[in-house]
Amino acid sequence: MRFILFTRLAAVSWLLIWTGAALASEEAQLIQSINSYRSQAQPCANVVSQELPPLNADTRLNLPASGAVDLQPMLSRAAYPMVSVQAISLSGPRDAPSAMKAIQESFCQVVLNPQFVDVGVSRNDRDWRIVLARPLLTGGLGNSDAEGQKILGLVNAARGVPQQCGGQAFDAASPLTWNANLASAAEGHSRSMANANYFDHKGRNGGTPGDRAEMAGYIGKAIGENIAAGQDSTRKVVEGWLASPGHCANIMNPAFHELGAAYAVDPKSDAGIYWTAMFGVQQ
User: Fold this and answer.
1) What number of other Cβ atoms are within 10 A of residue 145's Cβ?
2) Rounded to an integer, what distance in angstroms lies between the CA atom of residue 38 and that of residue 53?
């Protein structure tokens, strides 16, 4: 079985000539398997990953599955405004489970990289090409507090109806209220991740979400935290969290009463933009 990894960094785009009416079942199954894999902490390269939101299937990233490809010229003709991309080529897997096994064995660091937001999968018999990418930020965001308030609105809309978070069903829950101390803690963590170029609930100083909340003046009986990276809108952030069982469970937890959320941007970081939402129950 032959594996090839291609990497390019550029601010270019490309146009896919889509030849099928819908994503074939094996390709769709592989995307589902990748997202299920990302949704849980995974051991990879001697570290354990964070729970990650799902990748969005984007047909513009469906490169030809067979033969050599030159990413930059292809992407330069696209409608996909790419910042970074990695393409995995597999030769040999007969189906999606076999392809997923090969990815886990040889490319766990690629599919568990939090900077990637979108994915495309192509297949030609036993040849596969999996493309993961991050687009340019649109620049349409307001200030951190305003976008945090939008997160609150979307979270409360989600809590207003029953949700299925993986294997756990949640009834509708009461709306959360905004807490400025939690928002301050969320902004601090987003800024830390952006400036220090990491993605983790554990801060660079070793601090936990509870530590950050307390330092911001929030004394709570319980603290929850959701983080995200790469998404350039609050809608994408919350949709990603709702599709991830652990993040979804935080959103729907009826014990939480308050929320603060914020984002931070650093163009030198891998993901470009980082989001934090902190959930709390005051003592």
Assistant:
1) 16
2) 7
Closest CA to 277 of 247, 245, 252: 247
CB 118 within 8 A of CB 58: yes
Q: Measured in Å, how far apart are the chain's first and last C-alpha atoms? A: 57
Find, among 132, 134, 127, 165, the residue nearest to 34 by Cα: 132
Q: Taking a C-beta distance cutoff of 8 angstroms, is the pair 233, 241 a contact?
A: no
| Ramachandran assignment for 242, one of left (phi > 0), alpha (psi -120 to 50 degrees), beta (any other) | alpha
Segment 31-84, tens digit of pLDDT: 999 999 999 999 999 999 988 989 999 999 998 898 888 777 776 777 888 788
CA separation for the pair 141, 139 (Å, rounded)? 6
Distances (CA, A) of 80 to 15, 60, 86, 126, 139: 7, 7, 14, 27, 15
d(CA 177, CA 257) in angstroms, rounded, equals 6
The answer to whether the CB of 271 falls within 8 A of the CB of 114 is yes
Distance, in Å, from the CA atom of 147 to the CA atom of 138, rounded to the nearest integer, reads 14
Q: Please give the torsion angle defined by the CA atoms of residues 110, 111, 112 and 117, in that order, rounded to the nearest 10 degrees.
A: 110
Report DSSP letters for 206-264, one per residue. S--HHHHHHHTT--EEEEEEEEEES--SHHHHHHHHHTSHHHHHHHH-TT--EEEEEEE
Do you know the residue count of the chain? 283
Instruction: Please tell me the pTM assigned to this model.
Output: 0.83
Write out the two tokens for 43: 């051991």
Strand 47-48 relative to strand 56-57, pairing: unpaired
CA pair distance 221, 212, nearest whole angstrom: 14
Q: Residue 163 forms beta bridges with which residues?
A: 170
